[in-house]
C-alpha cells in the first residue's frame, strides 16, 4: 500500500509543478560548448491572439564557467509584414561577490530576463525573434568571439497581467 501512495503523491507533485498555464510560448535552444558572437539564436512564433497584450522574456541558463557579471544581448523582432525592432540589452548576471544570479540548486542557474512589456502582436503571421550576444572584455574594442558558460537560450511569451 505505501508504494501506491508514493506513486499518487509523485504524480500529484508533477502535475502541480509541471503545468505552467502562464505561458503562451516557451522554447529553449542549446548552446554547444561556446556561444560564438556571430551565432544567431532564433525563435519562430505565431501568436495565438492579436487582441491581447503580452510580456516577453529572454531565458538564459548559465554555469560557473560564465565569467562576467553582466550580459549584453542584441535582440531583434521581425514582424510578418517586414517591420523590424532591434534592441541592445544589458542584464546583471552576478552579485557583487561574483555569485551567479538565477534559479537553480546546482551549478546551472536559470535567469528569466525581462525583454519587452505590454506587447501586442497585431500583425497576423509568424514573428521571428533573433538573439545574439554582444560581450566585450573591459577596455577592448573587439567582442568576445566565443562566450563560455551559457548552456541554453530561451524565449518566453506570457499574458500581461494588470
TrEMBL record:
One Pfam family this sequence matches: GldH_lipo
For this UniProt record, give its keywords in alphabetical order, as a comma-separated list.
Answer: Lipoprotein
NCBIfam families documented for this protein: GldH_lipo (TIGR03511)
State the name under which the record lists this protein: Gliding motility lipoprotein GldH
- Organism for this UniProt entry: Gelidibacter gilvus
- Its encoding gene is what? gldH
